[in-house]
Amino acid sequence: MAGTAIGLGNFWRFPYMVGEYGGALFILIYIFCAFLMSLPIFFAESVIGRRTRANAIGAMKKLAPHSFWQVLGWLSVLTPTIIVSYYSIVGGWSVQYFAESFGLRFGEFDPDGWTALGFNVIFLAISCIIVAFGVNAGIEKFSKLSIPLLFCLIVIIAIYSLNMPGAKEGVQYLVKPDLSKFNGRMVASALGQSFYSLSLGMGIIITYSSYVSKEENIVSSGVGTAMADTLFAILAGFAIMPAVFAAGIEPSAGPGLIFQTLPHVFSAMAPSASWVGSAIAALFFLSVIVAAMTSSVSLIEVGVAFLVEELKISRSLACLLTFFIVLVLGLASVFSSKIFGLVDAFSSNVLLTFGALLAVLFVGWKMKREDVQDELTNCGTANRRSFKVIYFLLRYIAPIAIIVIFVSNFI
Ligand code: PHE
């Protein structure tokens, strides 16, 4: 679960959102959304998955056959396919920066080119090949190594970044909330980001939870995943923002932010022995690629599983088909940063929010309370007291908040 949650959402998307919405206030709202709204939804999806032991479409077929709730299953095929179309473009940028880190000669950040398309193809092809081979053994081993490695690297980078001349302003930006910047759009984006980062609202947590054994405590797994995910996001903020200010880059530069900023940090690391900077840069981008892949693979897998199970085609053909569909879907985003932004905002702020709302309404209002209680308390043996709080959040607070924020998106 940490493998799907921790990815480009933490290293790339979170820091640039923080920059777009003006710093500390966004972080505070994000933490609030992550623990009070997203975590209950995480539990809701876990309940659906572990109860049915099936993928999202299968789960909804079991729990509410021939009803409106099937939409939740369908969204879980549609949304990830749209998301991975631009996610793999960012994955491609990381591959390009990895390649360039060997000479520490980073080109201008130019996301709209044929080069970006080429690297996108590489990233997407590798992801599809991994999915074609099956994800279990490889991905789990991969994540267990890459996530701790990434943690160490991000801490090292944060230390360097915090010590760059002029970094103080960046720290201020991250810790001093500017209340005058508050607006509804910011809250909607913080919520959307927390769904995105925890992989919610599209059946991924349903699918992953279907593999979790009945003895496992899904409440503590959820809390652990959310804490690790938030920690990585905040660390990434502290690694990037001070360097942004030190290098004189606009914090609101948008999706290119980390790619414009980090090269400055790497070149400043060891001016007299540039291979040190090169090595750290290469290691860093490599682990970002791996973290991105553990996420992109989960995004691709849902569509592939659907093609294999429903249309009865072979796994390799399904992967090939998915590769081309995703590539074509992403073409507009590769060549236009405007469309890239629109696709990203629509899928994260609209589709994910809608999916999350359905999950929470289903578990809070449609499923029997006893069933939900059984799952969240392991048949009454754990979390008995916290269940009441979780159930309350799930039934009332989360749906109301999501609806209010969702509607504020459109007015
Ligand atoms: N949570 C992943 C990230 O932070 C992205 C993702 C979203 C992956 C949804 C799978 C499903 O990068």
Write the layout of secondary structure elements.
Elements: H1 2-5, H2 8-20, H3 24-52, H4 56-63, H5 70-100, H6 114-133, H7 136-162, H8 168-175, H9 184-197, H10 204-209, H11 218-246, H12 257-269, H13 274-310, H14 315-335, H15 337-366, H16 369-377, H17 384-408
Residues 4-5, 7-10, 80, 196-197, 199, 204, 295, 298-299 line the site of phenylalanine.
Radius of gyration from the CA trace?
21 Å
**Beta-strand residue percentage:** under 5%
The overall pLDDT, averaged over residues, is 89
Overall body shape: globular
DSSP E strands, number: 0
Low-confidence stretches: none
Task: Give the helix/strand class.
Answer: mainly alpha
| Largest β sheet strand count, sense and barrel closure | none
Q: Would you give an account of this structure?
A:
It is a single chain. With 411 residues, this protein is an all-alpha fold. The protein has 17 helices and no strands. It has helices at 2-5, 8-20, 24-52, 56-63, 70-100, 114-133, 136-162, 168-175, 184-197, 204-209, 218-246, 257-269, 274-310, 315-335, 337-366, 369-377, 384-408. The two termini are 35 Å apart. The structure holds phenylalanine (PHE).
